[in-house]
Write a structure and sequence with these properties.
heterodimer, A: alpha/beta, Rossmann fold, four-stranded mixed sheet, 11 strands, B: alpha/beta, six-stranded parallel sheet, 10 strands, binds iron/sulfur cluster
């Protein structure tokens, strides 16, 4: 008998009589009324920055300015500034100063942002750049992780990730250091509700 | 088997200042957990849901594993099954050989520690780089992680500085955590980029979608998995949860219980390999089906490895992870390890005060301290106890079985502790006193007090 069948057989013999799956009644979950202020508070708590954008031109301008300063920028925001190609060469990507990526949903209880594979273009992009900028619309905020998993389909694409803050570690004497293996900084740009921006 | 834990704990306690630091630091982590838990009024409901979801899953595991396998295969992922550690290691080596690869990066996976994958691969000439910062530190030092979430918590920054000076050429005597972390960042980024194969652990595997979720703060699992051509994810089969919706419950509990963060920095959902790449999932038994069949210990398989039970445990905090001489230390390790090897780990269920703090913080409501107590019965019945503790335990069992004796013994003990403290505090007669302070004896027992209250 194959290992697979042996294991499955052993499990079948060992598992107890079926117990019910609980019904999750989300009315017990404490509501969060001020989504944006809670979200902002938690992005800061996990080491990130939040910026409210109320003029679409400002965002495009910011990207252009950074390019002019000689920064290595990779823009993945569709329809804003020019969208850049992604080099397949990791040593090139490793040098990127800043990457702009569209997030699809923000969670008010913890500052996490869902980023889909399509918006990354390459799965490694949000991890390999030195700085990450994620862009969200104000109306894309939800209260808790329960709401988040109602809104996204985790297997819609091959990969997707919640990102909360820049990479960090406290492995040396529990001192928090921002910038472990991934980005050393995370900025979240929130586009004000009703703003006509192509992204 | 003599009490190995006690001997190793004694070694750890030789450095009092360090032991105190270890104790206080983990208590601080425990307090951060409390603060995070207290901000959610529904915390207890979340624990109950998590516990019930896991109970249900264990009772229907056969079907969920089949569902998971079917969906993972449909996603284009290779699924492997390993009966034991040896088979797990062989499967990984085969994948490496097929790919013609002799160096790999690995993010945190307690399962690969349990299976001793690193020494196995190193013997075959494979260069394995652990990429979690704490794990890299202990790997350089040829030590084992001492904590499942904070692998290098037994070390001070001076130790890390010396280690990095030797292996990474950092400035001698520079103990700045920022500087040391940055040196590791540069070193490991190079390794990520060069590596063709990356191994990661798994936090949750979702039956309904055939995908896996990996949680890290450093981003090392993602750097490795996305840079490599082949991603191998290793998991004990108990990581299965039925539905994507359940991730809402577990992601709310995991980081808050572990470090007090509202969520880990990265919660990565892997379903299909990237175009042109390969993804493998190795499902491992290694004694788990045996544990599933032990009614008293079954629900230890609900564990989500948050380490809250470590941080709160008065014994762990003052004895250090290495004193448990196994891959998973702490209270939960003391339940899992006797299942793997009862004789070699017979001492571990005794490394506890049975205070129950572990059970109180556990996000999936495992009755940890009760299981420790039950293992003691099993181990005693098998004749595997250390003679000095065995006598004490037998006496205890006898006393507890006889309420009148219990009341008298308590009275007598309070009298002895108050009037002849040297008897109680003598390390030869009472091994309990080693590395412990005995409390002042109360003048009356709870029962005596209660009776008086009733009378008045
Ligand atoms: S037993 Fe509970 S508290 Fe301990 S690591 Fe597992 S889930 Fe966390």
């Amino acid at each position: 008998m194959s290992s697979r069948n042996q294991i499955l057989e052993a499990i079948k013999n060992a598992q107890p009589a079926i117990k019910p799956l609980p019904v999750l009644d989300y009315t017990v979950v404490t509501p969060i009324k001020e989504l944006i202020s809670s979200f902002e508070q938690f992005v800061k708590a996990v080491g990130g920055r939040v910026q409210l954008v109320d003029q679409s031109a400002a965002l495009a301008q910011e990207i252009e300015n950074a390019r002019l300063e000689g920064k290595l920028i990779l823009n993945r925001l569709n329809g804003l500034s020019s969208m850049d190609e992604i080099s397949p060469d990791l040593t090139e990507l490793e040098k990127l100063d800043r990457v702009y990526i569209r997030g699809s949903l923000g969670v008010a209880e913890n500052g996490a942002i869902w980023v889909s594979e399509t918006s990354m273009g390459n799965r490694i992009l949000p991890f390999i750049a030195q700085e990450l900028v994620l862009v969200l619309r104000e109306e894309e905020l939800v209260p808790t992780m329960h709401d988040a998993y109602q809104h996204i389909r985790i297997n819609q694409e091959g990969f997707g990730v919640f990102i909360a803050g820049p990479s960090k570690t406290a492995d040396i004497e529990q001192s928090l250091v921002i910038g472990a293996h991934g980005p050393v900084a995370l900025t979240v740009l929130i586009l004000k509700s009703g703003l006509a921006v192509p992204v | 088997m003599s009490s190995r834990h006690a001997q190793l704990a004694e070694q750890f306690n030789a450095d009092e200042a360090r032991t105190n630091w270890h104790d206080q630091t983990l208590w601080w982590v425990r307090q951060k957990r409390d603060r995070a838990a207290n901000t959610l009024p529904e915390w207890e409901q979340l624990r109950q849901w998590a516990s019930d979801i896991k109970d249900h899953t264990l009772s229907n595991l056969h079907a969920y594993l089949l569902e998971f396998e079917k969906n993972a295969l449909a996603n284009g992922v290779f699924v492997h099954w390993a009966k034991d550690a040896e088979e797990h290691n062989r499967i990984i080596y085969d994948i490496l050989q097929k790919a013609g690869v002799d160096r790999i990066v690995k993010s945190k996976s307690m399962l690969t520690e349990e299976c001793h994958l690193n020494p196995y691969l190193q013997k075959k000439g494979i260069d394995v780089v652990d990429t979690d910062l704490g794990e890299r530190i202990v790997q350089f030092r040829e030590e084992a992680p001492s904590h499942i979430v904070l692998p290098a918590i037994h070390l001070k920054k001076e130790d890390v500085s010396d280690t990095f000076h030797e292996h990474l050429g950092t400035e001698k005597g520079n103990n700045d955590p920022q500087y040391l972390t940055h040196a590791a960042r540069l070193h490991l980024r190079e390794k990520f980029i060069q590596s063709d194969i990356a191994i990661t652990g798994v936090n949750f595997a979702i039956a309904e979608t055939g995908g896996i979720v990996v949680c890290t703060n450093e981003g090392n699992a993602d750097m490795g998995a996305h840079a490599a051509r082949v991603h191998i994810a290793c998991m004990g089969f108990e990581k299965i949860i039925p539905k994507a919706e359940h991730l809402g419950v577990f992601t709310r509990l995991l980081a808050r219980s572990a470090t007090g963060q509202p969520i880990t920095t990265y919660t990565s959902h892997f379903h299909r390999p990237a175009p042109g790449k390969e993804m493998h999932i190795v499902l491992v038994d290694n004694g788990r089906s045996r544990q599933l069949g032990r009614e008293d210990f079954r629900n230890s398989l609900k564990c989500i490895r948050c380490a809250a039970c470590f941080n709160t445990c008065p014994v762990y905090r003052r004895s250090g992870g290495h004193s448990y001489h196994t891959a998973v230390a702490g209270p939960i390790g003391s339940i899992l390890n006797p299942n793997l090897d009862m004789k070699a780990n017979a001492d571990l269920p005794f490394a506890s005060t049975l205070c129950g703090s572990c059970s109180n913080v556990c996000p999936v409501k495992i009755n940890i301290h009760e299981q420790l107590w039950k293992w003691r019965q099993v181990i005693s019945a098998e004749g595997l106890t250390d003679p000095s503790k065995k006598m004490g335990m037998k006496l205890m069992a006898w006393v507890l079985a006889r309420p009148a004796v219990y009341r008298f013994a308590g009275k007598a003990a309070r009298w002895v502790t108050a009037n002849l403290p040297f008897l109680v505090k003598n390390k030869t007669w009472n091994p309990w006193f080693k590395q412990r302070e005995m409390p002042e004896a109360p003048k009356q027992s709870f029962q005596e007090w209660y009776k008086k209250q009733q009378r008045s």
